[in-house]
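Appendix B, record 7
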Amino acid sequence: MKKYIAAFIFFFVTLAVILVLSLTGQLEILELKSYDYMMSVLRGPLPAPEEMVIVGIDQSSLDEFKANFNWPWPRWVHAQLIRSLNKAGVRAIVFDVIFDLETTAEDDDDLAAAIRESDVPVILAATEDTVDDPRFGVLRKRVLPIDKLMQAGAHPGYATMNPDLDDILRHTRLSVKGSPSLAVQAFNQLGGTTLDFSKLPIVRSQGEDLEILINYVGGARSIYTVSYYQAIDHQIFLPPQALKDKIIFVGLSMTVQDISQAGMEKDAFSTPFTLAGSSLVAGSEVHANALNTLMSRAFIKKVPLTQTWVVMILLAGLISGIVLGFDSFRLKIFLSVAVIIAYEVAVALIFIYQNYWLYTAQPFIIMLSVFGLNTLYQYRLTEKERAHIRKALKGYVSSQVMSEIMKNPDSLELGGTQVEATVLFSDIAGFSKISEKTTPRKLFSMLNDYFTRIGDVIMKQEGMINKYIGDAVMAIWNAPKTNENHAALACQAALEMRRIVEEMRPLEARIGINTGPMVAGNLGHIERMEYTVIGDAVNLASRLEGANKPFGTAIMISESTEELVRGQFLLRLVDRIRVIGKQQPVRVYEVLAGIDEPVPDGLHQMVQSFDKIIDAYESRDWESACALIEKHLERFSEDKVARIYLERCREFSAAPPPADWDGVYALKSK
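Structure tokens (predicted):
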């Protein structure tokens, strides 16, 4: 059954990928971006071709010539460049400039004469204009150099560019309606023979015109570039032999801002190296990269789609086999991730060292989808089995313990481990008197409402309700589920519990909280065990709950808890006490509010005032302490803790304690 499900999942994922690819083209864009990343980041720039030079029509040249003429320059300037380059001993001159309109007869004749006199091939750009005519549809018109230049021996080459869906230029056309592109024409003139397209790794076609991938050597100006004015007077501005035996590409080489200011048409393109931060590459440099690809034969070959799909089917089948063949979820993830990473790394290495482009995004999506859906299917089966266990355990253990058991079945054995945890005990004050005045049914209903509401608070604050003992509740934080913020969560729960009790008058509750080392685990009989915590720290939390009674406080915490929550809550030191059954005294604090929550007017002043009382009390300055307390009670008359200290200070003032008095108050009851 699992095999049939896995086969269906693979079929479904494959069909979905095909539909997305055919309907939106989004997956194709992902593949193109992956291609850019491999070329520009993983492989990086290549050594620039030494036999090529870009002569840039740039801002420097415009500034140099503007005293005599503006753009477009007279054609005698280009004639002068051709003659100067011939004197420099170049191999070929390729103009990425379209001379399609006649100017003055004198200028046109001068340029034609320079072309005719040239000892090296002169290739001039042609293009194809697209006209959307409502009567005849889309018309394509060839735009060629003027006849005078063609008759002088110029060789036309199409400079038409076709960016991809994302406006990145990755391909070069080899021809336009059967006529050679600029790079192909330059190749043919340099080699003396016509390029055989059948021997090239064609990656796509536009009708009868074929395209190959340009193997860029880098981003903008990776190929040696000089300014137009420098090339004309190369004897002055350039090193000797700088242009000798070089293939010259002449064209615009300007920033987008410069083009806008000069009123020129844009002739710069985004390339794969744009991903790595390169600026737009001049069209002339794009053609130079295309010619370099042809001359060096460093072609980037694209694996046919059929072979790519065979690879994807094998990979998806392998992932399905891993998911179905192993029980360990960690092993499934490890092996599946290993296969995915291995494929992606292999594809990158093949691209870098063999110039083969295999798809990366679609195989990744298919493998990940097959893994995810197969895993979800198996998870559903596993959850059915786990549901039976939950049903059996429901009503015996808390949800937290059940969750821990489901993650770690070995924890069902008796035994425990030492943990640092926070324990909260809460008890209803005067419960016996309430019971006497309430019918059992009403009492039962009231307790259920009380336990439900405070239980919700405890669980919301990520605590575990460990047990109910009559009208008391015991809750644990950081066991069995770990939580570094356990002390603060317990204190926050206590504050919310206090607010609930205030809404349920006449109920009153006292809460004690302590943090410390304790043993957590299953305790009891092998067939009837209970998850709980035991230890001295647990006992102290219980004693602190009872210690609220003589002080008239609602929430009391130990110094170990206070140390963890200091700065997060408004606290006040209550006393140093020694609880029943313990010899070691402990400082105890009252939790009044969260540090950021709104509090009644004067609460902060009450704490500051009481702190002064504690300082005087611990300094054994009884008279000052009495005076401070009396002043304190004038404003905070309901502060029972302050009244307790007033009685003590009066007693000590009349009969001072011995010199070795440690300031500890010993509780007389639990």
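Remarks on this record: Residues 259-263, 392-397 have pLDDT under 50 and may be disordered. The first strand starts at residue 52 and ends at 57.
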